[in-house]
Amino acid sequence: MEQRKDMSDSEIKLHLTFPPLWTPQTDAASTAIGFDERMLLHSEVQTKSHPHPERPDRLRAIMGGLSAAGLFSGLCCMIPSREATLAELEWVHSHSHVEAVEATSLHEASYFGRDTYANNYSALAARLAAGTCIDLMTAIVKGQILNGFALVRPPGHHALSATAMGFCLHNNAALAAKAALSAGAKKVMIIDWDVHHGNGTQEIFDSDSSVLYVSLHRHQAGFFYPGTGAASEVGIKDGEGFSVNIPWPCGGIGDEDYLFAFQNVIMPIVEQFAPDATIISAGFDAAKGDPLGGCQVTPSGYAHMTQLLYSLMKGKLLVVLEGGYNLRSISASAAAVLKVLLGVSPGEIPPSWQPTFAGLLAVSEACVIQSRYWKIDRMSLLNMQMLLSAAETKFKENKNDPRQPVSGPQAEDQPQG
Ligand code: X5A
Ligand code: ZN
Protein backbone atom coordinates (compact mmCIF):
# COMPACT_ATOMS: atom_id res chain seq x y z
CA MET A 1 0.00 0.00 0.00
CA GLU A 2 1.34 3.42 -0.90
CA GLN A 3 2.14 5.82 1.90
CA ARG A 4 -0.14 8.80 1.96
CA LYS A 5 1.69 12.06 2.38
CA ASP A 6 0.24 14.60 4.71
CA MET A 7 -0.85 17.85 3.20
CA SER A 8 0.55 20.89 4.91
CA ASP A 9 -1.37 24.13 5.20
CA SER A 10 0.85 25.85 2.67
CA GLU A 11 -0.03 23.28 0.04
CA ILE A 12 -3.70 24.12 0.22
CA LYS A 13 -3.34 27.91 0.52
CA LEU A 14 -5.34 29.71 -2.10
CA HIS A 15 -3.37 32.96 -1.98
CA LEU A 16 -6.54 34.96 -2.45
CA THR A 17 -7.46 38.12 -0.67
CA PHE A 18 -10.55 37.10 1.23
CA PRO A 19 -13.26 39.56 2.27
CA PRO A 20 -12.99 40.93 5.82
CA LEU A 21 -14.26 38.77 8.69
CA TRP A 22 -17.73 39.49 10.01
CA THR A 23 -17.74 41.47 13.27
CA PRO A 24 -20.65 42.79 15.35
CA GLN A 25 -19.96 46.13 13.63
CA THR A 26 -20.55 44.69 10.16
CA ASP A 27 -23.44 46.27 8.25
CA ALA A 28 -26.57 44.12 8.70
CA ALA A 29 -27.19 44.59 4.97
CA SER A 30 -24.10 42.52 4.17
CA THR A 31 -23.72 39.29 2.32
CA ALA A 32 -21.58 36.74 4.14
CA ILE A 33 -19.47 34.00 2.61
CA GLY A 34 -18.78 30.75 4.46
CA PHE A 35 -15.59 28.96 3.53
CA ASP A 36 -12.68 27.14 5.17
CA GLU A 37 -9.59 25.86 3.43
CA ARG A 38 -9.70 22.68 5.50
CA MET A 39 -12.71 21.61 3.41
CA LEU A 40 -10.18 21.14 0.59
CA LEU A 41 -8.54 18.30 2.54
CA HIS A 42 -11.49 15.99 1.84
CA SER A 43 -10.40 14.09 -1.26
CA GLU A 44 -10.41 10.60 -2.69
CA VAL A 45 -7.20 8.74 -1.80
CA GLN A 46 -7.51 6.04 -4.40
CA THR A 47 -6.44 7.41 -7.76
CA LYS A 48 -8.37 6.20 -10.74
CA SER A 49 -8.15 6.90 -14.46
CA HIS A 50 -10.61 9.76 -13.92
CA PRO A 51 -10.50 11.92 -10.80
CA HIS A 52 -13.63 11.80 -8.64
CA PRO A 53 -15.95 14.59 -9.84
CA GLU A 54 -16.51 15.83 -6.27
CA ARG A 55 -12.97 17.07 -5.77
CA PRO A 56 -11.22 19.90 -3.89
CA ASP A 57 -10.63 21.91 -7.07
CA ARG A 58 -14.35 22.65 -7.19
CA LEU A 59 -14.06 25.04 -4.27
CA ARG A 60 -10.74 26.44 -5.51
CA ALA A 61 -12.39 27.20 -8.86
CA ILE A 62 -15.37 28.91 -7.26
CA MET A 63 -13.33 30.97 -4.80
CA GLY A 64 -10.93 31.96 -7.58
CA GLY A 65 -13.81 32.88 -9.87
CA LEU A 66 -15.58 35.03 -7.29
CA SER A 67 -12.37 36.83 -6.43
CA ALA A 68 -11.49 37.40 -10.10
CA ALA A 69 -14.99 38.77 -10.73
CA GLY A 70 -14.28 41.41 -8.08
CA LEU A 71 -17.10 40.18 -5.87
CA PHE A 72 -15.03 39.92 -2.70
CA SER A 73 -14.71 43.63 -2.26
CA GLY A 74 -17.45 45.89 -1.00
CA LEU A 75 -20.50 44.26 0.49
CA CYS A 76 -19.10 40.78 1.21
CA CYS A 77 -17.73 39.58 4.50
CA MET A 78 -16.56 36.17 5.69
CA ILE A 79 -18.31 34.40 8.52
CA PRO A 80 -15.82 32.64 10.81
CA SER A 81 -16.05 28.94 10.03
CA ARG A 82 -16.91 26.51 12.79
CA GLU A 83 -17.20 22.77 13.20
CA ALA A 84 -20.73 21.59 13.97
CA THR A 85 -20.93 19.78 17.29
CA LEU A 86 -21.97 16.14 17.35
CA ALA A 87 -25.14 17.18 19.16
CA GLU A 88 -26.01 19.58 16.31
CA LEU A 89 -25.42 16.86 13.72
CA GLU A 90 -27.94 14.73 15.62
CA TRP A 91 -30.63 17.37 14.92
CA VAL A 92 -31.07 15.53 11.62
CA HIS A 93 -28.87 12.42 11.79
CA SER A 94 -28.91 9.26 13.88
CA HIS A 95 -26.25 8.79 16.53
CA SER A 96 -24.87 5.79 14.63
CA HIS A 97 -24.58 7.81 11.40
CA VAL A 98 -22.65 10.57 13.17
CA GLU A 99 -20.36 7.95 14.72
CA ALA A 100 -19.84 6.19 11.38
CA VAL A 101 -18.71 9.46 9.78
CA GLU A 102 -16.50 10.30 12.75
CA ALA A 103 -14.86 6.86 12.54
CA THR A 104 -13.60 7.57 9.01
CA SER A 105 -10.99 9.95 10.45
CA LEU A 106 -9.11 6.90 11.76
CA HIS A 107 -8.67 5.50 8.28
CA GLU A 108 -6.71 6.63 5.29
CA ALA A 109 -9.60 5.69 3.01
CA SER A 110 -13.19 4.61 3.64
CA TYR A 111 -16.23 4.26 1.44
CA PHE A 112 -19.98 4.57 1.92
CA GLY A 113 -21.12 2.64 -1.11
CA ARG A 114 -19.10 2.85 -4.31
CA ASP A 115 -19.09 6.57 -4.95
CA THR A 116 -18.98 8.24 -1.53
CA TYR A 117 -15.41 8.38 -0.29
CA ALA A 118 -13.80 9.59 2.91
CA ASN A 119 -10.20 10.16 4.00
CA ASN A 120 -8.71 11.13 7.38
CA TYR A 121 -9.99 14.70 6.97
CA SER A 122 -13.48 14.07 5.65
CA ALA A 123 -15.20 14.07 9.04
CA LEU A 124 -13.52 17.39 9.86
CA ALA A 125 -14.53 18.86 6.49
CA ALA A 126 -18.10 17.61 6.96
CA ARG A 127 -18.31 19.16 10.45
CA LEU A 128 -16.96 22.45 9.07
CA ALA A 129 -19.43 22.43 6.17
CA ALA A 130 -22.34 21.80 8.53
CA GLY A 131 -21.21 24.27 11.22
CA THR A 132 -20.66 27.03 8.68
CA CYS A 133 -24.16 26.54 7.25
CA ILE A 134 -25.65 26.56 10.76
CA ASP A 135 -23.88 29.81 11.71
CA LEU A 136 -24.72 31.57 8.45
CA MET A 137 -28.41 30.67 8.80
CA THR A 138 -28.50 31.74 12.44
CA ALA A 139 -26.91 35.11 11.62
CA ILE A 140 -29.43 35.62 8.80
CA VAL A 141 -32.46 34.81 10.96
CA LYS A 142 -31.15 37.08 13.73
CA GLY A 143 -30.78 39.91 11.19
CA GLN A 144 -27.01 40.24 11.62
CA ILE A 145 -26.49 39.70 7.91
CA LEU A 146 -28.85 39.98 4.94
CA ASN A 147 -28.00 36.78 3.14
CA GLY A 148 -25.17 34.30 2.72
CA PHE A 149 -23.41 31.87 0.47
CA ALA A 150 -21.96 28.69 2.02
CA LEU A 151 -19.12 27.50 -0.20
CA VAL A 152 -18.85 24.11 1.38
CA ARG A 153 -17.98 20.50 0.69
CA PRO A 154 -18.65 17.64 1.03
CA PRO A 155 -22.16 18.33 -0.27
CA GLY A 156 -25.20 17.27 1.74
CA HIS A 157 -28.59 16.80 0.11
CA HIS A 158 -28.36 13.04 -0.48
CA ALA A 159 -27.38 12.37 3.16
CA LEU A 160 -30.29 10.63 4.87
CA SER A 161 -30.84 10.66 8.62
CA ALA A 162 -28.93 7.38 8.89
CA THR A 163 -26.91 7.07 5.65
CA ALA A 164 -24.15 8.82 3.73
CA MET A 165 -24.59 8.58 -0.03
CA GLY A 166 -24.17 10.39 -3.34
CA PHE A 167 -20.92 12.14 -2.27
CA CYS A 168 -22.73 13.51 0.82
CA LEU A 169 -21.83 12.90 4.47
CA HIS A 170 -23.93 15.33 6.54
CA ASN A 171 -27.00 17.14 5.28
CA ASN A 172 -25.86 20.77 5.41
CA ALA A 173 -29.09 22.33 4.13
CA ALA A 174 -31.22 20.30 6.55
CA LEU A 175 -29.01 21.39 9.44
CA ALA A 176 -29.33 25.01 8.32
CA ALA A 177 -33.13 24.60 8.31
CA LYS A 178 -33.02 23.28 11.88
CA ALA A 179 -30.78 26.19 12.86
CA ALA A 180 -33.29 28.64 11.37
CA LEU A 181 -36.08 27.05 13.40
CA SER A 182 -34.09 27.20 16.62
CA ALA A 183 -33.19 30.86 15.94
CA GLY A 184 -36.91 31.68 15.85
CA ALA A 185 -38.08 31.08 12.28
CA LYS A 186 -41.47 29.36 12.22
CA LYS A 187 -41.45 28.33 8.55
CA VAL A 188 -38.44 27.48 6.44
CA MET A 189 -38.26 26.68 2.76
CA ILE A 190 -35.54 24.63 1.10
CA ILE A 191 -35.41 24.97 -2.66
CA ASP A 192 -33.14 22.42 -4.27
CA TRP A 193 -32.00 23.11 -7.83
CA ASP A 194 -29.18 20.56 -7.87
CA VAL A 195 -29.79 18.35 -10.94
CA HIS A 196 -30.26 15.36 -8.62
CA HIS A 197 -33.24 14.92 -6.31
CA GLY A 198 -32.35 15.73 -2.69
CA ASN A 199 -33.67 12.46 -1.31
CA GLY A 200 -31.93 13.03 2.04
CA THR A 201 -33.46 16.44 2.64
CA GLN A 202 -36.88 15.25 1.54
CA GLU A 203 -36.71 12.25 3.89
CA ILE A 204 -35.57 14.31 6.88
CA PHE A 205 -38.54 16.68 6.58
CA ASP A 206 -41.06 14.28 5.02
CA SER A 207 -43.58 14.54 7.87
CA ASP A 208 -42.66 18.10 8.93
CA SER A 209 -44.96 20.96 7.93
CA SER A 210 -42.58 23.65 9.18
CA VAL A 211 -40.10 22.93 6.38
CA LEU A 212 -41.28 23.14 2.78
CA TYR A 213 -39.04 21.15 0.45
CA VAL A 214 -39.13 22.07 -3.26
CA SER A 215 -36.95 20.32 -5.81
CA LEU A 216 -36.40 20.56 -9.56
CA HIS A 217 -34.37 17.65 -10.88
CA ARG A 218 -33.69 15.32 -13.76
CA HIS A 219 -35.81 12.27 -12.96
CA GLN A 220 -36.28 10.27 -16.14
CA ALA A 221 -39.09 8.17 -14.68
CA GLY A 222 -36.82 7.13 -11.82
CA PHE A 223 -33.85 6.14 -13.99
CA PHE A 224 -31.69 9.13 -13.05
CA TYR A 225 -29.78 9.15 -9.74
CA PRO A 226 -31.02 8.74 -6.99
CA GLY A 227 -34.34 7.67 -8.54
CA THR A 228 -36.67 9.40 -6.08
CA GLY A 229 -38.54 12.69 -6.52
CA ALA A 230 -41.60 11.79 -8.60
CA ALA A 231 -44.23 14.54 -8.66
CA SER A 232 -46.48 12.24 -6.63
CA GLU A 233 -44.10 12.44 -3.63
CA VAL A 234 -45.75 15.23 -1.65
CA GLY A 235 -44.79 14.46 1.95
CA ILE A 236 -46.45 12.28 4.58
CA LYS A 237 -48.57 12.72 7.74
CA ASP A 238 -48.43 16.36 8.93
CA GLY A 239 -45.98 17.07 6.13
CA GLU A 240 -48.38 16.12 3.33
CA GLY A 241 -48.31 18.94 0.79
CA PHE A 242 -44.96 20.22 2.07
CA SER A 243 -42.79 18.42 -0.51
CA VAL A 244 -42.98 19.75 -4.06
CA ASN A 245 -41.22 17.79 -6.79
CA ILE A 246 -40.73 18.94 -10.37
CA PRO A 247 -39.23 15.92 -12.16
CA TRP A 248 -37.74 16.52 -15.62
CA PRO A 249 -38.50 13.53 -17.85
CA CYS A 250 -35.19 13.85 -19.76
CA GLY A 251 -31.89 15.72 -19.90
CA GLY A 252 -31.20 18.89 -21.88
CA ILE A 253 -33.49 21.05 -19.73
CA GLY A 254 -32.49 24.72 -19.59
CA ASP A 255 -33.28 28.23 -18.33
CA GLU A 256 -36.68 28.47 -20.00
CA ASP A 257 -38.06 25.38 -18.27
CA TYR A 258 -36.59 26.29 -14.88
CA LEU A 259 -38.07 29.77 -15.07
CA PHE A 260 -41.38 28.39 -16.29
CA ALA A 261 -41.48 26.15 -13.21
CA PHE A 262 -40.66 29.11 -10.96
CA GLN A 263 -43.40 31.27 -12.47
CA ASN A 264 -46.13 28.64 -12.53
CA VAL A 265 -45.64 26.42 -9.47
CA ILE A 266 -42.80 27.48 -7.22
CA MET A 267 -43.47 31.19 -6.74
CA PRO A 268 -47.24 30.78 -6.16
CA ILE A 269 -46.52 28.16 -3.47
CA VAL A 270 -43.72 30.20 -1.89
CA GLU A 271 -46.04 33.21 -1.65
CA GLN A 272 -48.68 31.15 0.14
CA PHE A 273 -46.21 29.37 2.43
CA ALA A 274 -44.52 32.70 3.22
CA PRO A 275 -41.29 31.31 4.70
CA ASP A 276 -39.38 33.21 7.39
CA ALA A 277 -36.12 31.94 5.89
CA THR A 278 -35.15 30.31 2.61
CA ILE A 279 -32.30 27.94 1.86
CA ILE A 280 -31.22 27.21 -1.69
CA SER A 281 -29.65 23.77 -2.06
CA ALA A 282 -27.57 25.13 -4.88
CA GLY A 283 -25.96 22.42 -6.92
CA PHE A 284 -24.63 23.70 -10.22
CA ASP A 285 -24.78 20.33 -11.96
CA ALA A 286 -27.82 21.31 -14.05
CA ALA A 287 -25.47 23.85 -15.64
CA LYS A 288 -24.53 23.75 -19.29
CA GLY A 289 -21.30 21.77 -19.59
CA ASP A 290 -21.74 19.64 -16.49
CA PRO A 291 -20.47 16.09 -17.07
CA LEU A 292 -23.05 14.45 -14.79
CA GLY A 293 -26.20 16.50 -15.25
CA GLY A 294 -26.53 16.83 -19.03
CA CYS A 295 -28.74 19.91 -18.70
CA GLN A 296 -28.45 23.47 -20.04
CA VAL A 297 -28.90 26.05 -17.27
CA THR A 298 -26.77 29.18 -17.79
CA PRO A 299 -25.39 31.63 -15.21
CA SER A 300 -28.18 34.00 -16.24
CA GLY A 301 -30.76 31.29 -15.47
CA TYR A 302 -29.30 30.83 -11.99
CA ALA A 303 -29.29 34.61 -11.49
CA HIS A 304 -32.97 34.88 -12.42
CA MET A 305 -33.97 32.04 -10.07
CA THR A 306 -32.03 33.69 -7.24
CA GLN A 307 -33.61 37.06 -8.04
CA LEU A 308 -37.16 35.67 -7.89
CA LEU A 309 -36.53 34.24 -4.41
CA TYR A 310 -34.49 37.23 -3.24
CA SER A 311 -37.11 39.80 -4.19
CA LEU A 312 -39.82 37.84 -2.42
CA MET A 313 -37.78 37.16 0.72
CA LYS A 314 -36.13 40.61 1.03
CA GLY A 315 -32.98 38.78 2.07
CA LYS A 316 -33.25 35.95 4.59
CA LEU A 317 -31.71 33.76 1.92
CA LEU A 318 -28.93 31.23 2.41
CA VAL A 319 -27.32 29.62 -0.62
CA VAL A 320 -25.65 26.29 0.13
CA LEU A 321 -23.40 24.65 -2.45
CA GLU A 322 -24.33 21.07 -3.31
CA GLY A 323 -23.07 19.40 -6.53
CA GLY A 324 -21.69 20.81 -9.80
CA TYR A 325 -18.72 19.28 -11.56
CA ASN A 326 -17.63 21.46 -14.47
CA LEU A 327 -15.17 23.92 -12.93
CA ARG A 328 -15.88 26.70 -15.43
CA SER A 329 -19.65 26.26 -15.19
CA ILE A 330 -19.72 26.23 -11.41
CA SER A 331 -17.51 29.28 -10.97
CA ALA A 332 -19.49 31.33 -13.51
CA SER A 333 -22.80 30.19 -12.00
CA ALA A 334 -21.71 30.88 -8.41
CA ALA A 335 -20.56 34.37 -9.44
CA ALA A 336 -23.93 35.07 -11.08
CA VAL A 337 -25.77 33.99 -7.92
CA LEU A 338 -23.51 35.99 -5.59
CA LYS A 339 -24.03 39.11 -7.71
CA VAL A 340 -27.77 38.86 -7.09
CA LEU A 341 -27.21 38.37 -3.35
CA LEU A 342 -25.16 41.59 -3.46
CA GLY A 343 -28.13 43.43 -4.96
CA VAL A 344 -27.31 43.46 -8.66
CA SER A 345 -30.53 42.56 -10.49
CA PRO A 346 -30.30 40.40 -13.62
CA GLY A 347 -33.23 42.35 -15.08
CA GLU A 348 -36.49 41.15 -16.55
CA ILE A 349 -37.03 37.59 -17.69
CA PRO A 350 -37.22 37.69 -21.51
CA PRO A 351 -40.94 37.41 -22.46
CA SER A 352 -39.96 35.25 -25.43
CA TRP A 353 -38.91 32.42 -23.12
CA GLN A 354 -41.10 29.38 -23.69
CA PRO A 355 -40.92 25.99 -22.03
CA THR A 356 -40.09 22.85 -23.96
CA PHE A 357 -42.58 20.00 -24.25
CA ALA A 358 -40.67 18.09 -21.58
CA GLY A 359 -40.65 21.09 -19.24
CA LEU A 360 -44.34 21.77 -19.75
CA LEU A 361 -45.12 18.11 -19.06
CA ALA A 362 -43.29 18.13 -15.71
CA VAL A 363 -44.59 21.52 -14.58
CA SER A 364 -48.22 20.82 -15.45
CA GLU A 365 -48.03 17.44 -13.68
CA ALA A 366 -46.62 19.11 -10.56
CA CYS A 367 -49.30 21.82 -10.79
CA VAL A 368 -52.16 19.32 -10.94
CA ILE A 369 -50.81 17.36 -7.97
CA GLN A 370 -49.93 20.41 -5.87
CA SER A 371 -53.29 22.08 -6.52
CA ARG A 372 -54.65 19.65 -3.89
CA TYR A 373 -52.65 21.60 -1.30
CA TRP A 374 -52.00 25.05 -2.76
CA LYS A 375 -53.93 27.59 -4.77
CA ILE A 376 -52.69 27.35 -8.32
CA ASP A 377 -54.22 29.89 -10.65
CA ARG A 378 -57.02 28.19 -12.65
CA MET A 379 -56.19 30.20 -15.74
CA SER A 380 -52.56 29.15 -15.78
CA LEU A 381 -53.61 25.52 -15.17
CA LEU A 382 -56.02 25.73 -18.12
CA ASN A 383 -53.44 27.50 -20.23
CA MET A 384 -50.93 24.77 -19.51
CA GLN A 385 -53.43 22.05 -20.38
CA MET A 386 -54.17 23.75 -23.68
CA LEU A 387 -50.51 24.26 -24.53
CA LEU A 388 -49.91 20.65 -23.62
CA SER A 389 -52.60 19.15 -25.84
CA ALA A 390 -51.54 21.36 -28.77
CA ALA A 391 -47.94 20.39 -28.15
CA GLU A 392 -48.82 16.70 -27.89
CA THR A 393 -50.18 16.71 -31.44
CA LYS A 394 -47.14 18.55 -32.70
CA PHE A 395 -44.89 16.27 -30.69
CA LYS A 396 -46.26 13.22 -32.49
CA GLU A 397 -46.18 14.91 -35.92
CA ASN A 398 -42.59 16.03 -35.40
CA LYS A 399 -39.64 13.92 -34.42
CA ASN A 400 -41.06 13.10 -30.97
CA ASP A 401 -38.41 15.41 -29.53
CA PRO A 402 -39.46 16.30 -25.99
CA ARG A 403 -36.98 19.18 -25.98
CA GLN A 404 -38.70 21.18 -28.70
CA PRO A 405 -40.22 24.48 -27.59
CA VAL A 406 -43.98 24.19 -27.27
CA SER A 407 -45.36 27.29 -28.84
CA GLY A 408 -45.41 29.30 -32.01
CA PRO A 409 -44.53 28.38 -35.57
CA GLN A 410 -41.49 30.66 -35.24
CA ALA A 411 -39.94 28.11 -32.90
CA GLU A 412 -39.74 25.61 -35.74
CA ASP A 413 -37.60 27.95 -37.80
CA GLN A 414 -34.96 28.15 -35.11
CA PRO A 415 -32.01 25.83 -35.45
CA GLN A 416 -32.19 23.06 -32.87
CA GLY A 417 -29.15 22.42 -30.69
C1 X5A B 1 -24.22 16.05 -4.63
C2 X5A B 1 -24.32 15.34 -5.95
C3 X5A B 1 -24.34 13.26 -7.15
C4 X5A B 1 -24.18 11.80 -6.92
C5 X5A B 1 -24.15 11.02 -8.22
C6 X5A B 1 -23.84 9.57 -7.95
N1 X5A B 1 -24.25 14.02 -5.94
N2 X5A B 1 -23.73 8.81 -9.15
O1 X5A B 1 -24.44 15.99 -6.98
ZN1 ZN C 1 -26.15 16.72 -7.88
UniProtKB/TrEMBL annotation:
Pfam families: Hist_deacetyl. It comes from Ceratopteris richardii. SUPFAM superfamilies: Arginase/deacetylase (SSF52768). Residues 395-417 are annotated as: Disordered. Its main location: nucleus. Residues 52-341 form the Histone deacetylase domain. GO terms for biological process: epigenetic regulation of gene expression. InterPro entries: HDACs, His_deacetylse_dom, His_deacetylse_dom_sf, Ureohydrolase_dom_sf. It is an enzyme of class 3 (hydrolase). The lineage of its organism: Eukaryota, Viridiplantae, Streptophyta, Embryophyta, Tracheophyta. GO terms for molecular function: histone deacetylase activity, hydrolytic mechanism. It comes from the Eukaryota. Belongs to the histone deacetylase family. HD type 2 subfamily. It is found in: Nucleus. CDD domains: HDAC_classII (cd09992). Its EC number is 3.5.1.98. One of its GO terms (cellular component) is cytoplasm. This is histone deacetylase. Keywords: Chromatin regulator, Hydrolase, Nucleus, Repressor, Transcription, Transcription regulation.
